[in-house]
Amino acid sequence: MEELKKKKELVYKGGGEERIKAQHDKGKLTARERLSLLFDGNTFQEFMGFATTKATEFGLDKNKVYGDGVVTGWGKVEGRTVFAYAQDFISLGGTLGEVHANKIARVYELALKTGAPVVGINDSGGARIQEGAVALEGYGAVFKMNVMASGVIPQITIMAGPAAGGAVYSPALTDFIIMIKGDAYYMFVTGPEITKVALGEEVSYQDLGGAIVHSTKSGVIHFMAENEQDAINITKKLLSYLPSNNMEEPPYIDTGDAADRDVSGANDIIPTDPVKPYSMRELIYRTVDNGEFMEVHKYWANNMIIGFARIGGNVVGIVANNPEEFGGAIDVDAADKAARFIRFCDAFNIPLISLVDTPGYVPGTEQEYKGIIRHGAKMLYAFAEATVPKITVILRKSYGGAHIAMSIKSLGADLVYAWPNAEIAVTGPEGAVRILYKRDLQKMSNPEDYIKQKIEEYRRLFANPYWAAEKGLIDDVIEPKDTRRIIYSALEMLKNKREYRYPKKHGNIPL
Ligand code: HXC
């Protein structure tokens, strides 16, 4: 017993007091401190804590540390089983060698067998230099497990330290990355030193790979945390919306918010001027249970709003255009953002709600050169492929390809509703008239009145939802205030929805 106690103490101490102090001095917590914040009470159960590196090169035989730089195990998060690994910067710099990688792979094996989410806390110097190619092989094993687990169990990564080189790719292969703000936290494929040598470009660690850059510019991370505790809080909140695996339904909670209540102020939220913006976020807050909307990618591709909420206690994934940014038009980033989210929701049985107000895809050379064709196609693919309940509400504009990309009946939407102001057409009135009457207009010296008159005609026909409703493309035109009640009713009806796809190895989504 004495020996066990002593050895356990060594396991807990990792690289020693000095390194723990250095970690705290950087404002960072140790792996064990982080895990104790994540798991309920003392439910965390460690395994392979005694494992050490098998390598002997470059003095590693004299520098064996129990745990090999990563703490692994499982426990309860708000009563549900969750697996976790936390790289331990105080032990061998949290670097990844063969045994370290085996431990992470074992976390995945057990999590996959038992159908429980994995939370990875990354804080590492990367591949352990002394273990050379074996360390790289270890990364390969971790990446493979990330991919095997994709779509089977939710994977969440907290970026709680440095991540350079290929080490960034395990986080990138998981479903959600939460990154902490501050100098001690960064991720990039190539650091500032090599960037300077290779390109002569001078850039700081934060400007190259800090949380602000990755949440606003690159879109690499999904959530930015103010500090370590905040990162754990975000993780717990996110888990509260997710099923433990792809065979489960997302967790229902009695939120106490009446499913049949009106959406307050919704009847007046759309301005009478059709080009004036309004707050889609505000509408979402008013529609969902208790105004709680967990927005994903909040600071990136602001023209598309995505996130989790509950309606009558049922988890939903919301995909909404944002008329306050590019008038709600879809660009390459917005399409990527929505498509990945749609696929996540579909993989984990989360019904999708589309809230539509989009004038189309963003035009111009910049977007075309970036491949708006390729990126826009992802949304079409993702919605068409998804078999979860899909409910669309067209609030105002819904034009052209973007109308289809936001999920319509022929693409597989189960129900499509429209508000009375909805405008559904191939293109906007002015563009349409100039194309349809091009020959006539060329012959006129002063075509303005004619254009006005034709625009009026076009608007009368298409700037309302009834023409489309008469064609059966819209299931009902609804009062905005009834949106919540109607979505809830549709969700209830669609609860046992079954839809099958042709057997195949996998599809080939345009990337
Ligand atoms: C072995 C390493 C290490 C590494 C850090 N350490 N990185 N040991 N291999 N890659 C050790 C240090 O020697 C030190 O040991 C301890 O970890 C803490 O590191 P410090 O340098 O003291 O900490 P700090 O000043 O905070 O700097 C952190 C750091 C720096 C920025 C991460 O250590 C660093 O630049 N490391 C090298 C990063 C790197 O090039 N990694 C490979 C990336 S490529 P002692 O005993 O003194 O405490 C990669 C490929 C993956 O990962 C490929 C996948 C396909």
Automatic annotation (TrEMBL):
Q: What class of enzyme is it?
A: ligase
Instruction: Please list the residue ranges annotated as the CoA carboxyltransferase N-terminal domain.
Output: 1-254
Specify the signal sequence span: none
Instruction: Tell me the InterPro entries matching this sequence.
Output: AccD/PCCB (IPR051047), AcCoA_carboxyl_beta (IPR034733), ClpP/crotonase-like_dom_sf (IPR029045), COA_CT_C (IPR011763), COA_CT_N (IPR011762)
- Spell out the molecular function terms from Gene Ontology: propionyl-CoA carboxylase activity
For this UniProt record, give its keywords in alphabetical order, as a comma-separated list: Ligase
Keyword set includes Ligase: yes
EC assignment: 6.4.1.3
Keyword Flavoprotein belongs to the record: no
Q: Quote any Pfam family the record assigns.
A: Carboxyl_trans
Q: Which residues form the CoA carboxyltransferase C-terminal domain?
A: 258-493
Question: What is the designated name of this protein?
Answer: Propionyl-CoA carboxylase beta chain
Q: Which organism does this sequence originate in?
A: Sulfolobus acidocaldarius (strain ATCC 33909 / DSM 639 / JCM 8929 / NBRC 15157 / NCIMB 11770)
Lineage, top ranks = Archaea, Thermoproteota, Thermoprotei, Sulfolobales, Sulfolobaceae
